[in-house]
Design goal:
about 250 residues, alpha/beta, Rossmann fold, 6-stranded mixed beta sheet, 4-stranded antiparallel beta sheet, 9 helices, about 35% helix, disordered C terminus
Length: about 250
């Protein structure tokens, strides 16, 4: 599914959160969005998901103009927003939370999707009868991702999915994104963790002060200290703090 955002702007009162952003994601592609806090990357993902209103510009998905489409109708079209801040229903069981993610699918499809999610994240199968409130932070993030996968997404909007996760949990989630989703699901990945994002991306772009100021392909990503020097230059333009170092 091809996503196109054209001259997208989002304004909150007097604050211009996005300013004329034009960005495309081709079918099966992983596009990383880098930016400091307040750079507009989360706002962009939420605009695509239908979670914040667009002030101007246009969003099309698979040739359909979805700019004014409600969020739930975008979910029905396979567009899912996944954040480290996404909530789970703490009093519902892990299994019930997963079932919510597949509510639009037929029972047989939902059962097959559940089997796949449990294969990817065995801990969710082990704790399926338990309230989601007993899960650790990392397990809740697996549940959030698993819930999105239950809906058979064609476009996943990942908003800093690795934030606050231990290295062990991160290394359990990365192979799922890289293996299960790569090539068949289009992914927009907003991330501070350069190391994790670079392992996944096909293309990347840099947001500063609500504007897309730079784009590049995988072969153009600098490595080592050159990587951090490049990003320091981008953020110094706006007096912003650079993303985390790759080795953190």
């Amino acid at each position: 599914m091809h996503l196109k955002a054209r001259n997208l702007s989002v304004t909150f009162g007097q604050v211009k959160a996005l300013q004329g952003v034009t960005l495309e994601a081709r079918p099966g592609e992983v596009v990383a969005i880098f930016g400091a806090n307040g750079s507009g990357k989360t706002t962009f993902l939420k605009a695509v998901a239908g979670l914040v209103p667009v002030s101007s510009g246009r969003i099309t998905y698979h040739g359909e103009d979805i700019t004014a489409l409600p969020a739930h109708e975008r979910v029905a079209r396979g567009i899912h927003y996944v954040s480290d801040r996404a909530r789970v229903a703490l009093r519902m069981t892990v299994r019930e939370n997963l079932d919510v993610g597949g509510y639009l699918r037929k029972p047989a499809e939902r059962r097959e999707a559940l089997k796949k999610v449990v294969d990817l994240f065995p801990v969710l199968g082990e704790k399926a009868p338990s309230p989601a409130g007993i899960l650790s932070g990392g397990e809740r993030q697996m549940l959030v991702i698993g819930r999105a996968l239950m809906g058979n997404p064609s476009l996943l909007l990942f908003d800093e999915p690795f934030l606050g996760l231990s290295l062990e949990v991160r290394e359990r989630i990365l192979p799922v994104i890289d293996g299960e989703l790569r090539g068949r699901t289009t992914i927009l990945l907003a991330e501070h963790d350069l190391g994790a994002a670079i392992r996944l991306l096909d293309r990347y772009c840099v947001f500063v002060n609500g504007e897309l100021i730079h784009e590049g392909g995988r072969s153009e990503v600098p490595t080592g200290e050159r990587l951090h020097a490049a990003f320091r230059r981008f953020y110094q333009q706006a007096g912003e703090e650079s993303p985390e170092r790759e080795d953190r």
